[in-house]
């Protein structure tokens, strides 16, 4: 790759990474304000967590819709409309008079924020394949993963100056900036001749075809179930760190941000070593690392260990997510260039749908124990590994056996 091409690739990764950060900022930036929102509306922690659940549902379902629309109408038009609606939804959150309108507005906000996530990944597949896709996706994640690192710190900074309302005003300003970037800086990457027909039945057939592909489904589930465990961590740690261990919102943001660093390290390790170590090897390593870390978290929670004993395995658990996500995406997308938007949508929807299910479960035993978090992330790690072995590995063995029969 020439120096000029490398600069162009980095600029594209920065631009698409900005759209990828919209999801993490939408999820993470208001986390330090959870206790404040509980007090403002005189409600419970579970209802405030429900606002996160509806946002995750919107992010999940929205990706299915936006992925299909981007295959039909191209990448830019759905992004433009979504960013405009995002700004309106963020303002609606800020002026909500009660918890229920906040919950509804978060659903809409998550739905349109999904466009930034799924379409940025579809654009990546439009332009790259093979190891080059792995390397570019790791660059994309390098920028996108700054979201979980910066968002809670930014949220804490806003809270130091104003109330939780200011957080959503800041998100509205971010949406306005991304709307301008879409209008003036993003080029269309899906030519008209490569677009899918504007046919709802055909879109359903595309999703059905993808789900019948055992290898694709295995990679999708392995990645998606693992990320669902992170959403349990996202939902539970504001109360675990601040209520159980008594840390301040600023310290919480720093602890939360440390996992953003581990996420970046995990993803960059795969990107830098893509030509030396296979994506399959990295994926399996990440799955085993997540399993070991989640066991450690559960043990610390059960025996009421100190804060550092909880933080350390969570750092390794989130690093494992960076490894598995970066490895699984190019493996799943490699043969899906003809419907990259739909494939990227399915890869994105599973984490958010499962995350919406597990997030409220973290608080099921109250705000004085971290045991549910340990149980949930251990369960997700085990389920992700089972998905890989039962679908991907078994499919590979079956295909190898079929090849031998044909050869004979």
Automatic annotation (TrEMBL):
<dbReference type="GO" id="GO:0042910">
    <property type="term" value="F:xenobiotic transmembrane transporter activity"/>
</dbReference>
<feature type="transmembrane region" description="Helical">
    <location>
        <begin position="247"/>
        <end position="270"/>
    </location>
</feature>
<feature type="transmembrane region" description="Helical">
    <location>
        <begin position="46"/>
        <end position="67"/>
    </location>
</feature>
<dbReference type="InterPro" id="IPR011701">
    <property type="entry name" value="MFS"/>
</dbReference>
<feature type="domain" description="Major facilitator superfamily (MFS) profile">
    <location>
        <begin position="9"/>
        <end position="396"/>
    </location>
</feature>
<feature type="transmembrane region" description="Helical">
    <location>
        <begin position="12"/>
        <end position="34"/>
    </location>
</feature>
<protein>
    <recommendedName>
        <fullName>Bcr/CflA family efflux transporter</fullName>
    </recommendedName>
</protein>
<feature type="transmembrane region" description="Helical">
    <location>
        <begin position="79"/>
        <end position="101"/>
    </location>
</feature>
<dbReference type="InterPro" id="IPR020846">
    <property type="entry name" value="MFS_dom"/>
</dbReference>
<keyword id="KW-0472">Membrane</keyword>
<dbReference type="Pfam" id="PF07690">
    <property type="entry name" value="MFS_1"/>
</dbReference>
<feature type="transmembrane region" description="Helical">
    <location>
        <begin position="107"/>
        <end position="124"/>
    </location>
</feature>
<keyword id="KW-0812">Transmembrane</keyword>
<feature type="transmembrane region" description="Helical">
    <location>
        <begin position="370"/>
        <end position="391"/>
    </location>
</feature>
<feature type="transmembrane region" description="Helical">
    <location>
        <begin position="343"/>
        <end position="364"/>
    </location>
</feature>
<feature type="transmembrane region" description="Helical">
    <location>
        <begin position="161"/>
        <end position="180"/>
    </location>
</feature>
<feature type="transmembrane region" description="Helical">
    <location>
        <begin position="136"/>
        <end position="155"/>
    </location>
</feature>
<dbReference type="GO" id="GO:0005886">
    <property type="term" value="C:plasma membrane"/>
</dbReference>
<keyword id="KW-0813">Transport</keyword>
<feature type="transmembrane region" description="Helical">
    <location>
        <begin position="307"/>
        <end position="331"/>
    </location>
</feature>
<dbReference type="InterPro" id="IPR004812">
    <property type="entry name" value="Efflux_drug-R_Bcr/CmlA"/>
</dbReference>
<comment type="similarity">
    <text>Belongs to the major facilitator superfamily. Bcr/CmlA family.</text>
</comment>
<feature type="transmembrane region" description="Helical">
    <location>
        <begin position="282"/>
        <end position="301"/>
    </location>
</feature>
<keyword id="KW-1003">Cell membrane</keyword>
<feature type="transmembrane region" description="Helical">
    <location>
        <begin position="219"/>
        <end position="241"/>
    </location>
</feature>
<dbReference type="GO" id="GO:1990961">
    <property type="term" value="P:xenobiotic detoxification by transmembrane export across the plasma membrane"/>
</dbReference>
<keyword id="KW-1133">Transmembrane helix</keyword>
